[in-house]
Design brief:
The protein is an all-alpha fold and 157 residues long. It has seven helices and no strands.
């Protein structure tokens, strides 16, 4: 991850994950936070899936990013639809507008992460880190070090 945008997407994903974790914990304790979860068991499962996928997003892996996008799309897509309909009909309350905003953020961040990993040029061009290739994939370096090690003759008293 060399781009600032990649780091920002990962940081926003972690912040949104922390926000949802706090909202879930407070909802399970009976307290109310900004937006309550639609389904508490699905929210807990989504929190675990999201944390694992965010760890792999930092590693620039495409499959976990796609899983992250699909999981959030399925969960927050329904949540988005349930809150858009009252807004269109004009019967929306402040809670439904806040839930609509949370659902939009829950869909936008995985979408940005997916396209960021998909369009990352360094992931496609250089799948292995150049900083370590000179050591691990350089046979001449190994041969040179072996020859040098054989010629070292140290005096022992």
């Amino acid at each position: 991850m060399k781009n600032l945008s990649s780091w920002l997407i990962a940081i926003f994903a972690l912040m949104f994950w922390a926000f949802r974790a706090i909202a879930t914990v407070l909802y399970s304790m009976g307290s109310e936070f900004i937006a309550e979860p639609m389904d508490i068991t699905m929210e807990i499962a989504l929190l675990f899936i999201t944390f694992i996928c965010i760890c792999f997003i930092v590693k620039r892996k495409l499959l976990p990013t796609a899983i992250y996008l699909v999981a959030h799309g399925l969960y927050y897509g329904v949540y988005l639809y349930q809150n858009v309909m009252p807004a269109i009909e004009g019967t929306a309350t402040m809670d439904s507008y806040i839930s609509l905003l949370v659902a939009l953020v829950g869909i936008i961040i995985p979408l940005l992460a997916f396209f960021d990993v998909l369009l990352d040029k360094s992931r496609k061009a250089h799948p292995v880190d150049k900083k370590t290739d000179w050591f691990y994939k350089n046979k001449e370096y190994d041969r040179k070090m072996d020859e040098r090690a054989d010629r070292n003759q140290y005096r022992t008293l």
